[in-house]
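Worked Example 4.2. Consider the chain below.
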Amino acid sequence: MEQDIRNVRGRIADIQRFSLHDGPGIRTIVFLKGCRFRCRWCCNPEMQSYDIQTMMMNGVPKTVGRDVTVGEVIREVVKDRDFFWRSGGGLTLSGGECLSQPEFAIALLKAAKDEGLNTAIESTAFASYDDVIGKVLPNLDTYLMDIKHMDRAKHEAYIGHPNDLVLKNAKKIAVNAKRLIIRVPTVPGFNDTPEEIGAIARFAASLPNVEELHLLPYHRLGQDKYTWLGREYTLPDILPPTDEHMKMLLRVAEQCGLRCQIGG
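Applying the procedure from the previous section yields the following structure tokens:
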């Protein structure tokens, strides 16, 4: 069985080492290809498609996507075991949406736990609970879950899907996950009013076993990638929120009683 797990194949975009913002301690992040959401501000558009793609970066082609086995990934991750041990860190699966490759994600988390590693995922929870999420949770230490908006229509307009499944799954994950942290990508014009952040914070506070809420300020670091992919960036005129605005939204969020912070 162990050999079968390590032979499971999946498609990744990158492996990033020494992250401090994607779960506790020092993390190694594995970015999986594929996502059903199309967030208009997405900073990783090259990870939305499951396909292997070529980005033209200032005229220089860069291939995004490669097929690997679980065993190949875990061999890279365990190279940082000493850093994990000292900091309480470990492996984080991200994307894209890591749950868009469920068999691969489940096997990666199982293999990581077999190595004694702390595990986390960054996820929208836009997947079947019974077929996917429920099978992920037994080998998961921290679920970093995005909740982007409480309004169904606005969620669909900016992301391509309504939020019904996300909110339904959040209630189940809160009951069954070892640790759930709610994260809110805070995007001007989409969800950066006190009313919108307050609504998300109140929902998060209503979930059992949720203690933390993180506000993640919008940034423009991924905008050039759209040009490299030959795509249009549809929010060209919005600017990152100011520190003062984020601090105001933080005060609003804190009224729900959760431990809140700006950044991951």
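The CA atoms of residues 226 and 233 lie 6 Å apart. The radius of gyration is 18 Å. Compare this with Example 4.1 before moving on.
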